[in-house]
Amino acid sequence: MPQAPQVRTEDALLAEAESSGLGRRFAIYAKLSGPGWLQGAVTLGGGSLAGALFLGVLAGPHLLWLQPLAVACGITLLAAITYVTLSTERQPVATISQNLSPVLAYAWILGTMVANIVFCVPQFALATATVTQNLIPSLHTSTSAPWGIGVVLAIVGFIVVRSYGAGSKGIHLFELVLKILVGVVVLSFLAVVVLLLTSGQLNLKAVLAGFVPSISQFTEPTSALAAAAAATGEHERIWRAIIADQQRDRMLAAAGAAVGINMTFLLPYTLLKRKWGRRHRGVAIFDLSLGLLIPFVIATSCLVIAAGSQFYNRTDDVLAKDGTVIANMAGSYRASAGGFVAQRAALMGEEATPLTVETLAEPDRQLAAMLSSRDAGQLARTLQPVLGAAGANLIFGIGVFAMAVSTIIMLALMNAAALGALLKRLEDPKIFLIGAMMPLITGIFAPVIWTGASRAALAIPASVTAVTLGPIAYFTFLLLINSKGALGANRPEGVARLIWNVLLLIATALATLASIWALTSKPAPWGSIGMGGLVLLALIGLVGYVRNRNRDATT
After folding, report:
1. Angle at Cα 446 formed by Cα 441 and Cα 448, nearest 5°?
2. Taking a C-beta distance cutoff of 8 angstroms, is the pair 93, 109 a contact?
């Protein structure tokens, strides 16, 4: 078989790693790495960018601990998926169907496809905005540019994904492209923080303190915003509620972007495509740390630090010295101030003196400015005194564009794998390419899909699907790790089994709490549908586990 020389080489390297010291083992594992970098490429997308940016605006460095914790929980799940996949040496879809329930398996596939198709659209929008705002500003006013850029992105994504489906050489080329894109993302945003640090714009002590978790941050604003709310007098209670709601939503969005349901489906597909088996379990888990954990933590932390240093507890980029709103922030400011006016009217009713955005008192105006949304383009402009306009746009533009492109490519690959699993034709090249084209073609229409009411109509059911199936994935693999029927002699025992259960129980509990928190804030009937689906799928999985846990494993 064509793969045999490669397998023999990897076996020799793995044998050498097992008998070598830590340094040599690290070098060998790094050489063999690949699937973990694909996970890093899909994680470092528009969701991570927006989540990190909003966390920085809202809490400065105080929530730096959140995304590392979220990705650590996600890697616990991915490590369990890795162990189950490589121990059984087959797709988990079959293992789940046989040992838990086909309902869970098909929910996993369909949830993955929904996430891929819907969330590919904002990645196209992000890439297009980066080109027209940061890299080629002359295209900003063009109405045809977004369509042309979308077509180019779809073609590039299709070509790269097609190389992956071509076999061994295509797989290694694909992984190399993704490693480069992830490296560009990390280096771009690391450069931003280095520039801020060397220019004296960062409080290093506050940054380091931000990596220490604080439970109060789930419900309470940071001290700076709490003081700003107190300065509004009778409106303090309203502003604190607004800040708490925003903080909750931003934390959930940032945590949810760390590991999505579609990533959990991708990993086993790429592991088996690599021809990895039981001997690769150690290198595969190491690969997740090298390709996902380290790049994700560095890139998102740098983004939070940069956004916090420029926007947290500040109004000078929104309100001019004479008190007027700066032109390019007018929309964001009006949305922030208008939200306060609406909530005040709803809470105080007829007893309240009518207020408008234009008649807010100065403390209310200041706080509305602090909470105004910013974007990556505005963050890039803050570096202009150090790098100039061209340099600032280039560094941010390259990083953000690489984020979007790498995620577009991975969404196409994940959908190709999901469609193949759905139709039980994983090795059919035609099905693979059709699956890859589905999110790419949808992404081309981003200029009309990801706007206004259309955006909300897509985002709500898609996000409900994602938050419902997220904890189900954790619960599913917690059950499989303990299933004799699924793993047979490969089931962890003794201390190893205890460690797996402790880590997965913690991760499952956190994912479930986050899911319930998110679903209770969804508009009717979506929140109720999601909650009901969460409970139903969990019960289905538990019943299947009890029935099949002790039968002989299929070899």
Report:
1. 115
2. yes
- Residues β-bridged to residue 455: none
Measure the CA–CA gap between 388 and 406, rounded to whole angstroms.
27
- Any idea where the domains of the chain sit in the sequence? 1-32, 33-58+74-131+147-248+260-317+374-548
Label each residue of 268-311 as H, E or C: HHHHHHCCCCHHHHHHHHHHHHHHHHHHHHHHHHHHHHHHHHHH
Count of helix runs (H) and strand runs (E) in the chain? 25, 0
Question: Which candidate, 305, 328, 306, 325, places its Cα nearest to that of 315?
Answer: 325
Name the residue type at position 225.
L
Per-residue pLDDT of the chain (555 residues; tens, 9 = 90+): 444 455 557 778 888 888 888 888 888 888 888 888 888 888 887 777 778 888 888 899 999 998 898 889 889 999 999 999 999 999 999 999 999 999 999 988 988 898 888 889 888 988 998 898 888 888 888 889 999 999 999 999 999 898 887 766 777 788 888 888 888 888 888 888 888 888 888 888 889 999 998 877 777 888 899 999 999 998 999 999 999 888 887 787 777 666 778 888 888 988 998 889 898 988 998 899 888 889 989 988 998 998 888 889 999 889 998 888 998 888 889 989 998 988 888 887 756 677 788 889 999 999 999 999 887 677 777 666 667 777 878 887 888 888 888 889 989 999 999 999 999 998 899 999 999 999 999 999 988 887 766 665 666 666 667 777 788 889 999 999 999 889 989 999 999 999 999 999 999 988 888 888 777 877 778 788 888 888 998 899 999 998 887 665 544
Which of the following CATH numbers is that of domain 33-58+74-131+147-248+260-317+374-548: 3.30.70, 1.10.10, 1.10.4160, 3.40.50? 1.10.4160
The answer to whether the CB of 397 falls within 8 A of the CB of 137 is: no
- 247, 217 Cβ separation under 8 angstroms: yes
Nearest of 512, 53, 37 to residue 254 by alpha carbon: 53
The token duo for 132 is 């027209």
* Burial of 14 from C-beta contacts in 10 A (0-12 / 13-18 / 19+): middle
**Chain-centroid distance, C-alpha 515:** 15
Q: Are 120 and 110 in contact (CB under 8 A)?
A: no
The DSSP result for 314-355, as a single string, is --TTTB-TTSPBPGGGHHHHHHHHHHHHHHHHHHHGGGSPP-
SS3 485: helix
Maximum Cα–Cα distance for the chain, whole Å?
A: 81
Q: Note the residue count of the chain.
A: 555
SS3 521: coil
Report residue 485 CA to chain centroid gap: 33
- The pTM assigned to this predicted structure is 0.84
Return the SS3 of 553: coil
| Per-residue b or e along 429-448, where b marks 16 or more CB atoms closer than 10 Å to that residue's CB | eebbbebbbbbbebbbebbe
Phi-psi region of 551 (alpha: psi -120 to 50; beta: other; left: phi over 0): beta
Distance from C-alpha of 236 to C-alpha of 525, rounded to nearest angstrom? 32
Q: What does the block give as tokens for 279?
A: 């001997």
